[in-house]
Amino acid sequence: MNKERKRSWAEPYKIKMVEPVRMTTREERHQAIKGAGYNTFLLRSRDVYIDLLTDSGTSAMSDRQWAGLMLGDESYAGSENFYHLEEAIQTYYGYKYLVPTHQGRAAEHIISQILIKKGDIIPGNMYFTTTKVHQELAGGTFVDVIIDEAHNPENEHPFKGNIDIEKLESVIKKYGADRIPYVSVATTVNMAGGQPISLENLKAVRKLTTNYGIKIIHDMTRVAENAYLIKLREPGYSEKTVREIVKEICSLTDGATMSAKKDALVNIGGFLAVNDEDIFNKARNMVVIYEGLHTYGGMAGRDMEALAIGIKESVEYDHIRARVGQVIYLGNKLLNMGVPIVKPIGSHGIFLDAKKILPHLSQDGLPAQSLAAAIYLDSGVRAMERGVVSAGRNPETGKHNYPNLELVRLTIPRRVYTQAHMDVVAESVEAVLHNSANVSGLKFVYEPKYLRFFQSRFEPVS
Ligand SMILES: *Cc1c(COP(=O)(O)O)cnc(C)c1O
User: Fold this and answer.
1) What are the tens digits of pLDDT across the range 16-75?
2) Where are the domains of the chain?
3) Ligand 1 site, residue 184, Cβ cutoff 6 A
4) Using CA atoms, how far apart are residues 140 and 283, in angstroms rounded to an integer?
5) Are 401 and 191 in contact (CB under 8 A)?
6) Which of 59, 114, 315, 373 has its CA 20 to 30 A from that of 367?
7) Is 276 a catalytic residue?
8) Before 344, cis peptide (omega within 30)?
9) 129 annotated active-site
């Protein structure tokens, strides 16, 4: 028999500069997590060994990007780097007009204030924390129209980011197209576990919204990862380049908000991009109040240059294959160990099913928050909660929102860690799983009004 030999792959870069990480003792970690109110967002990074809190702004830039920083044109108006960024956005995404912002939520703020009026409804493929808050602050209400499969961590649907076309149409019929300024479409869906939307589905959403005269605003924070998963999974796209798929996705939407701190490989930055000149003029006027002049919008010239280069690198095949490949490597390792995770494996992180890992805790015992604290205590690996704490309270009733999913996210920064780090992480999660009966629940001792997961403090319930 002619058996194919297994061929391994490795990270498509070599390391030019190193940043040492600190190892701690269990006693040090115990003190640190207690001092942080059992909230991993409140830990100091010096107390963290492998930091999987977020993939936001944590990417390693390339030597090209660092070289780009030296070409920063810090003119207040008309910086050369703005024009490089504008060209990158037109070339790789195809949107006409660019309004730079300091990060994604600033773009969400501006587009929400321009398009949403009081009483409006904004359907979308599962909420994202900052997106939803800005829609609500502008007087709108978010309505989730993602397919039901997205709420089931066991379901292996390849495109759990898809919109349920029937749900969307019934929302339009119920409220009327006049009250729906746009449909909010995210590529990939962060809160569902980094799950992609298919081009087939996006085309159907485009057709329906065009019939009703409704816009699509694209949360394109992880569009390159979504495009790569389309290439892997969607019939008819295996021969297309990631670059082509990214452009096709954008072409089906009317505008986009971007947190460049994710796919675009920079540590800070974002933008709003639109095709409509009237919306652009309004946004360009608003950005000067909240962010800065329209040719920098809260970013330094050098940061715009690094972003222009990062956008180009983000759609290169070797990069995106290794980026998503590293996540898949960790996910498969955990699956082989019998750890319950959201399936299929998403693009930017692994989502542990805290309800299954800590079955003795009710949702009021904050299972995902408790699991994240337990993993930190075991190994110094920092993860984050995506469950009842992140879901916040219902603004009308003041009660907790109870999401179906109670998850802990192990988010992989881009180009930062090696497969050896992934091995260490997997072994720590396995150790906590085997010892899970000893993990106690947590309760709130301090809760801020907005985006409470960032700053809440907890203590163990005994
Ligand atoms: C991070 C993120 C945002 C917000 O962007 P910031 O740059 O953090 O302000 C919006 N949408 C999604 C899907 C995100 O992941």
Assistant:
1) 999 999 999 999 999 999 999 999 999 999 999 999 999 999 999 999 999 999 999 999
2) 26-48+317-460, 63-314
3) no
4) 18
5) no
6) 59
7) no
8) yes
9) yes
Burial 422-431 (b: 16+ CB within 10 A, else e): beebbebbbe
* Beta bridge pairs of residue 351: 409
SS (H, E, C) 258-270: EECCCCCCCCCCE
Cα 113 to ligand 1 centre (Å): 17
Neighbours of 20 (CB within 10 A): 5
State the Cα–Cα distance between residues 309 and 186, nearest whole angstrom. Answer: 23
Q: Is the CB of 56 under 6 A from ligand 1?
A: yes
Instruction: Return the structure tokens found at 197.
Output: 């939307």
**Ligand 1: centre distance to CA 260 (Å):** 8
**Ligand 1 mean position, distance from CA 397 (Å):** 27
Close Cβ partners of 392 (under 8 Å, ≥ 6 residues apart): 129, 400, 401, 451, 452, 453
| pLDDT at residue 2, as a whole number | 60
- Atom of ligand 1 at shortest range from CA of 259: 7
Going by CA atoms, what residue is nearest to atom 2 of ligand 1? Answer: 259
What residue owns the CA closest to ligand 1's atom 8? 104
CA of 107 to the centre of ligand 1 (A): 10
* Residue bearing the CA closest to ligand 1, atom 1: 259
Which residue minimizes the CA distance to atom 14 of ligand 1?
A: 221
The per-residue pLDDT for 4 is 79
Architecture of domain 26-48+317-460: Alpha-Beta Complex (3.90)
Q: What is the pTM of this model?
A: 0.93
CA of 236 to the centre of ligand 1 (A): 30
Query: What is the residue with the minimal CA distance to atom 12 of ligand 1?
Result: 221
Catalytic residue chosen out of the listed positions 93, 97, 128, 376: 128
User: At the top level of CATH, which class does the domain 63-314 belong to?
Assistant: alpha beta
Res. 179: pLDDT tops 80: yes
